[in-house]
Amino acid sequence: MILKDLKIVNFRNYRSLSLSFHPRVNIIYGENGQGKSNLLESIYVLGYTKSHRSVMEMALIKDEEAFAKITGTLQTNTVPKKMEIILNKEHKKLKIDEHLLKKISDYISNLDVIIFYPEDLDIVKGSPSTRRKFINTEISGLQNVYYNVLTDYNKLLKMRNEYLKQPYFDENYFSILTKYFIEKALLLYKMRNRFIERINEYVEPIYYHIMHMHDFRVFYKTEDVDFTDTYDLDILQKYYETIKQKERLQKKTLFGPHRDDLLFFLGNKDMNSYASQGQQRSAVLAFKLAEIELYKRYKGETPILLLDDVFSELDYMKRENLIDYISDHIQAIITTTDLTSIKEEVLKKAKLIQIENGKIIKQEEVI
Ligand SMILES: Nc1ncnc2c1ncn2[C@@H]1O[C@H](COP(=O)(O)OP(=O)(O)O)[C@@H](O)[C@H]1O
Ligand SMILES: [Mg+2]
Predict the structure, then answer these.
(1) Which listed ligand is nearest to 38 at the C-alpha?
(2) Under CATH, which architecture does the 120-300 domain have?
(3) CATH homologous superfamily, domain 1-112+302-367
(4) Cα of 52 to ligand 2 centre, how many Å?
(5) What is the DSSP code (8-state) at residue 341?
(6) CB distance 310 to 118 below 8 Å
(7) Ligand 2 centre from 118 Cα, in Å?
(8) Ligand nearest to the CA of 29
(9) Which residues sit opposite 266 in a β-bridge?
(10) pLDDT, tens digit, for every residue of 262-283?
(11) Region of residue 358 (left: phi > 0; alpha: psi -120 to 50; beta: else)
């Protein structure tokens, strides 16, 4: 899909902005603090109704204003669509082609966006919980149903943990609760594992294309026991039986998808402790580029790629490799502080948009 144009009103540091995009590479440039990231964020919010950064919703509305509005026209494989979101302090209004939508789920499956932004470095470097959050967000974007299963799982996990803290203990009740819990856990395991398997079908050559390094792989790690496809209700019920005393003693659920992790490996080395910053960033980047292939495969549409400050840790060659990879098959909107770091050939084919203090001060269309 292609985002043809965008209008934003009272969003972050933008009073009012109207802009059309090139179907391939668009480069937003300007100094720090001018609104480049905010512009990408507005596209993300238009698609998913919330920000990719963990922020208070209020912060999205321009200071001293009562509402923010973002509108965009999409060209999909089939029809054009006009999407609109109005945020105010109490609620959100969502519209497609002027029709008001009541359910967020009807809205968010329309504009698919993949965003790469500086904090993504934490995915490789940070704690397992950062990576669990990452995998949850990414699969939810691809399959709405994942989000529902995750919500159910979290509810059951909470109930189970609360029960383990009670002074009384009914074996029957606990085993029924555990059964429901395992059923949801199994669904999460299967979806997560299938997702990582699919990512691995694409991610190695992509990483190689950018970094010229082989053998990049992602692993899904289950705590204690190695995950196998043979996991089933029966096996897991028996396993939970073996850890029951320990769980009662520690008063919490000791095994399940809420304790798992994602490992990024280059050759036989865990990138969390071995890789350089640039290698770690590129690992996440390659992962997200692999997701584009999954969107194409499962949704039949190419998502829009938003790259915020992606060049900062890559040297000239690797920037070229990256641009080269994306430039002819996807719409990309890229921010940078430094246009001179991009080669002439790419600049000629891209739409260039200069931002200063929440305004467009220069636009150069592709001839
Ligand atoms: N709700 C808001 N109202 C007004 N200005 C905001 C709001 N939120 C952020 N800003 C301003 O946006 C600017 C940062 O924009 P950003 O897109 O991060 O810049 P960059 O071009 O470096 O990516 C800062 O000056 C910040 O004060
Ligand atoms: Mg920025």
Answers:
(1) 1
(2) Up-down Bundle (1.20)
(3) P-loop containing nucleotide triphosphate hydrolases (3.40.50.300)
(4) 13
(5) G
(6) no
(7) 8
(8) 1
(9) 216, 269
(10) 999 999 999 999 999 999 999 9
(11) left
Task: From the CA of 63, give the closest atom in ligand 1.
Answer: 3
pTM of this prediction? 0.94
Residues of the chain with CATH 1.20.1050.90: 120-300
Contact partners, residue 205, CB within 8 Å, separation at least 6: none
144-167 pLDDT, tens digit each = 899 999 999 999 999 999 999 999
Mean pLDDT of 62-72: 97
Residue 54 CA, ligand 1 centroid: distance in Å:
15
What tokens appear for 128 in the block?
């397992």
DSSP letter for 61, please. B
- Residue 212 pLDDT greater than 90, yes or no: yes
Mean pLDDT of the chain: 94
**CA–CA dist 93, 367 (Å, integer):** 38
Tell me how far the alpha carbon of residue 111 is from its chain's centroid. 13
The count of other CB atoms within 10 Å of the CB of residue 330 is 20
312 close to ligand 1 (CB < 6 Angstrom): no
CA 337 to ligand 2 center in whole angstroms: 9
In the chain, residues under CATH classification 3.40.50.300 are: 1-112+302-367
H helix or E strand, kind and range, residue 210:
helix 171-211
pLDDT bracket for residue 222 (50, 70, 90): confident
Atom of ligand 1 nearest to the CA of 64: 3
- Rounded Cα–Cα distance for residues 135 and 114 (Å): 13
- Tell me what pLDDT residue 226 has: 59
Residues recorded for the chain: 367
3-state helix, strand and coil shares in percent for the chain, rounded to the nearest 5: 50, 25, 25
Structural tokens at position 338:
């430094």
Residue 23's alpha-carbon distances to 60, 286, 293, 366, in angstroms, are 27, 22, 18, 11
Query: With 60 as the cut, is the pLDDT of residue 245 above it?
Result: yes
Our CA dihedral for 76, 88, 56, 1, rounded to 10 degrees, sits at 0
- The candidate with the shortest Cα–Cα distance to 43, out of 58, 28, 56, is 28
**Of the ligands numbered here, which is closest to the C-alpha atom of 356?**
1
Q: Is the CB of 62 under 6 A from ligand 1?
A: yes
